[in-house]
């Protein structure tokens, strides 16, 4: 059994993504009935927190980002079920995932960087990433499923790339002029080592995002103009109530005319 959740590939944290923790709890309760089935939890290297070097699988979990905290909660849930039910479980912590077809409106790291290149902020953090192609990640999942015998594995892209460098590469790819950006020190950066999965599961190497951009293997898909959502106008609460209350009163008045005093009782309950 492989658990990813609904918001796994997203490189940001949103309140909706916390629902993945609840979904995992439900999945673990079901999986506990089959303790000899291997359960793979897809996690993130963000559980390590900010590191000065590269964190290996023995490093302590100390997340400094909300996304990392969410994955720590998921891993702790798995820890509990593994100990209580003797589950055959593996945690696979991955770095930032990307595909050859980033899309406008998606929240994976490459899609967001293509969008940000066209809509840059004045201030940006010069974080360092280890982008991992999704097909390499799928290969890692298969290797862990077939031959993984450790509880935790890291899988990260081979090449590190800074946010500034990624911005410049995307601008060059899209033929955009670079804007004047004040690059700030890196924030919540996690760098991890993939030595264990290389040595134990016969790994060779991973795709290189910089090379793929330079060779034109990456294509950014923009949303059709007619499909782009227009911002909805928010009606002030006071004005909305001025419109709603007379309509609701009219409904209850009609009910009272047809059903006697029952309609007025409903109106009083509404108030």
Q: What is the topological layout?
A:
Layout: E1 2-3, H1 19-31, E2 39-44, H2 66-85, E3 89-94, E4 97-98, H3 109-118, E5 123-125, E6 128-129, E7 132-133, H4 134-147, E8 152-155, E9 161-162, H5 163-174, E10 182-184, H6 195-200, H7 209-214, H8 237-259, H9 262-270
Parallel strand pairs: 1-2, 2-3, 3-8, 4-7, 5-10
Antiparallel strand pairs: 6-9
Helix pairs in contact: 1-2, 3-5, 8-9
Could you please describe the fold and organization of this structure?
With 271 residues, this protein is of the alpha/beta class. It contains nine helices and ten strands. The strands form four sheets. The protein has a four-stranded parallel beta sheet with strand order 1-2-3-8, with helices on both faces. A two-stranded parallel sheet has the order 4-7. Helix 2 links the parallel strand 2 and strand 3. Helix 3 packs across helix 5 and helix 8 packs antiparallel against helix 9. The longest helix is centred in the last third of the chain and has 23 residues. It is globular.
């Amino acid at each position: 059994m492989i658990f990813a959740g609904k918001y796994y590939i997203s490189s940001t944290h949103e309140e909706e993504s916390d629902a993945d923790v609840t979904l995992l709890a439900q999945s673990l309760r079901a999986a506990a009935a089959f303790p000899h089935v291997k359960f793979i939890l897809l996690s993130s290297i963000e559980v390590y927190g900010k590191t000065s070097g590269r964190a290996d699988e023995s490093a302590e979990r100390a997340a400094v980002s909300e996304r990392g905290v969410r994955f720590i909660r998921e891993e702790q849930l798995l820890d509990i079920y593994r100990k209580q039910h003797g589950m055959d479980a593996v945690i696979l912590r991955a770095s930032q995932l990307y595909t050859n077809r980033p899309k406008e409106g998606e929240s994976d790291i490459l899609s967001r960087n293509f969008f940000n290149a066209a809509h840059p902020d004045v201030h940006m953090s010069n974080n360092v990433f280890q982008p991992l192609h999704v097909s390499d990640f799928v290969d890692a999942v298969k290797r862990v499923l077939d031959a993984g015998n450790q509880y935790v594995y890291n899988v990260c892209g081979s090449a590190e790339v800074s946010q500034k460098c990624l911005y410049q590469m995307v601008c060059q790819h899209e033929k955009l002029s670079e804007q004047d950006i004040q690059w700030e020190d890196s924030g919540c950066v996690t760098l991890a080592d993939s030595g264990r999965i290389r040595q134990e599961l016969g790994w060779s190497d991973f795709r290189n995002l910089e090379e793929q951009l330079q060779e034109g293997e990456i294509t950014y898909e923009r949303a059709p103009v007619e499909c782009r959502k227009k911002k909805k106008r928010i009606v002030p609460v006071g004005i909305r109530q001025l419109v709603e209350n007379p309509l609701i009163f009219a409904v209850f008045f009609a009910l009272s005319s047809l059903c006697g005093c029952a309609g007025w009782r409903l109106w009083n309950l509404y108030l």
